[in-house]
Structure prediction request, 290 residues.
Amino acid sequence: MTELEQYLHKIAGIAESTLDELLPKEDTYPASIHNLMRYSIFAGGKRIRPALVAASFEACGSAFPSENVLKVGAAIEMLHTFSLIHDDLPCMDDDDFRRGRPTAHKAFNEALAVLGGDALCIYAYEILANVGSIAVISEISRALGTNGMIGGQVVDIESEGKAVDKATVEYIHMNKTAALIRACIRCGALLANADSVTTEKLTNYGNLIGLAFQVVDDILDETATTEQLGKDAGSDRENGKATWVSVCGMDESRRYAVELIDKAKTEISFLGENGRMLAAIADFFFERVN
Prediction:
């Protein structure tokens, strides 16, 4: 494995163990909702968001693992999963598969999926409260609210089947996806007590890779198979979604993704060796299309 693959594998293992420890067990009453929560959390994935928290924390000169970094990474993973459960619902994207297996509302039922997503969100904030950082809680809350993920989701839904411009697509991407990725980076910096200049540079990096991540997702929706994606391929086009590819075309989308990744790596170049893993993660975000 490459150094990055080894790093992601290590963080994923730690994140899995932390999530297993923190989440209620399957047989905890009422078992149905705890089964759904665990079904959705342990559906697979590289645990990129906990890795971003850890890599940012380390880039600021702090030693990992840290109990608070593990808890924040786990909480963000719960919040990300809550958003996916709700995103897949019939009233949203109505997807049947997520990470290669039936979505929560298909494997259980729609009502339980709504409640399971809610439960993961609430439980995540219980964990964050125990971390004891108001700044971290505020950061994540902003990333999720109407000026973040929820705002992006609203404009995404309202743009379906309509002709939209680049500014609208960029708003959707920046809020629906990039906001939580930026929050991962900023939380790592906050937990490491980074100075304001370092935090600003890392914030710019987070915005850029977050935007690139969604542009690449738009490309993959058009070019990858359902088996490769682990979810329904071509669903964005079928649902009339506002994507970078639909507005700018495939070639421009690839060019833009490369530009975003290059800018992101430039933002963190001042970190030198400490930023090595963040730079590798930025490259990995684009390499998914190759």
